[in-house]
Amino acid sequence: MFTKSCLLKLVIGISAFVLIGFAALYFYHNEDKPTGKRGPAAEQLTNKMWDAINVDAWNEINYIAWNFADRQQYVWDKKRHLVQVKWKDTEVFLDPNSITGKASIDGEMLIGDAASATIKQAWDFFNNDSFWLNAPANAKQTGTTRSIVNGDGGEEQLLVTYTSGGTTPGDSYLWKLDQNGRPLSYKMWVKIIPVGGMEFTWEDWKDVGNGAMISTKHVNPAFTLHLTDIKIGDTYTDFGFDSDPFEELARNKNSEQNVPTTQSVN
What we know:
5 helices; 5-stranded antiparallel beta sheet; 30% helix; globular; alpha+beta; 9-stranded antiparallel beta sheet
């Protein structure tokens, strides 16, 4: 029979074991972020990567749905940048730009702080999960820098740093590419992971239906992420909606954009 003293020693022992394991992982795997060279060569390599994934076809997609690791499910209106996020018994219709929308649990609408917190959670999910959906397509978004890093074999790798935007600005990703420019993997230097240089594969590439290529499997020694149920469409009816699920959000977005600015008169 455990006494309180024995139980305390056991908890301390397990905690020490976990801390030692984490320290070993940190010192064995932690890498400093490399310094790359910016310029035309980095832009050319980015364009090569974009050609390999057919970013032009990606940009033409109106709607896309996917299931992220059997955790969250999405229907994304890419043209208006509005998204339905679902997890467990929660549903959020989200405007990612303004972090506003409407949220419900088991069909019951949330209000006040509960709604705000749930909408913020959906925004965090979307930022993360849409990045895993097609991070290479974001390599030239506003607030990014691109540079060339030479790999151990002398091959050119692409370092992309996000200086603004998203949930954790300042994150960097080092892309390893095949000879055609298609991503094989990336190493990450991100605020939410204390170990620098953690690597995930980008594999099981699939044509989503219009020529755009999406990686549906990301492998790391610790775990694997799968993206499933990927589907594109032209309208919301392709996803089972009888009416526009984003109508209210779109109306609010338009009204905010049309608010006249106040100018001072001297």
